[in-house]
Amino acid sequence: MNIDLPKTMKAIRFHTYGGPEVLQLEDVPVPSAQAGEVLVHVHAAGVNPGDWQIRSGLAHRKFGIDVPLPSIPGYDVSGMVAVVGRGVTSFQRGDAVYGMTTQSAAYAQYTTADPTHLALKPLSLDHIQAAGVPMSAFTAWHTLFVRTRVVAGQTVLVNGAAGGVGHFVVQLAKGQGAQVAVNSTEQAIEPVGSPRHLTWLLLRKPHRS
Fold first, then answer.
1. Residue 207 lies in a domain
2. What is the pLDDT of residues 99-149, one digit of tens each?
3. Residue 157: pLDDT band by 50, 70, 90 thresholds?
4. Residue at 205 is within a domain
5. In which element (H, E) is residue 52 found?
6. Which of 99, 114, 132 is the C-terminal boundary of a domain?
7. Which member of 7, 79, 150, 188 lies 3.0 to 4.6 Å from 40 by CB, making a disulfide possible if both were Cys?
8. Residue 139: which H helix or E strand, with range?
9. Domain of residue 118, residue span
């Protein structure tokens, strides 16, 4: 099937490690979906600490993580499936999806992704909201159910419960049947869940004289 795609796209790239000033808006070729991949038309991309750590060179210096330069940052993505690669049966063209890119390359109009790293976008979330979910939610899930193996009846203390990862930890732990204790202000955590279901360790901001 012939699919009318542009040959080039806009993308944010950096050619050398450094501060935000190294990010450049450029015209680059649209990537191709290889066998076992899908091409996603990006509607929104998430921003994570790992993005600036890679761009600044910190990940290279501290962890030995190298990326080919020039590089397009960004892992979290939400958009529409534009092309389905050979062998992919879990998605079809036009599906609204969210998840993580094959490589760090979400800050672009199109990006490729392993379909096992994607899911259908919930109707209750728009693309901007969905793009903020994948890495934070995965980190919370991995911490709770792989690293610590939380089960119903246990108590989970969430330090920074209103943060990007913390608010997912609160919701996932509650869903598992754990008792959740949070170290946060009530105003900050209110969108996550009813205060009646949480143990509050700090209800007021520290007073500064």
1. no
2. 999 778 999 999 999 999 999 999 999 999 999 999 999 999 999 999 999
3. confident
4. no
5. helix 49-56
6. 132
7. 79
8. helix 134-142
9. 8-132
Q: Which residues of 147-181 are buried (b: 16+ CB within 10 A; e: fewer)?
A: eeebeeeeebebeebbebbbbbbbebbbebebebb
CATH number of the CATH domain containing 171: 3.40.50.720
How many domains, in total, are found in the chain?
2
Question: Whole-angstrom Cα distance, residue 189 to residue 84?
Answer: 40
Token digits of residue 197: 């279901």
Same domain, 76 and 92: yes
Query: Rounded to the nearest 10 degrees, how much is the dihedral formed by the CA atoms of 167, 173, 175, 176?
Result: 160
Tokens representing 25 are 């808006």
Residues paired with residue 181 on neighbouring β-strands, in sequence order: 157, 199
Q: Which of 132, 154, 188 is the last residue of a domain?
A: 132
Predicted confidence (pLDDT) per residue in 30-75, tens digit: 999 999 999 999 999 999 988 999 999 998 888 888 888 999 999 9
Dist. CA 121–CA 133, nearest whole Å: 10
| CATH for 37 | 3.90.180.10
Q: pLDDT value at position 184?
A: 66
Residue 206 lies in a domain: no
Phi/psi of residue 27, nearest 5 degrees: -95, 125
Mean pLDDT of the chain: 87
pTM for the whole structure: 0.82
State both tokens at 78.
């939400």
Q: How far apart are CA 195 and CA 180, in angstroms?
A: 10
- pLDDT the model gives residue 192: 55
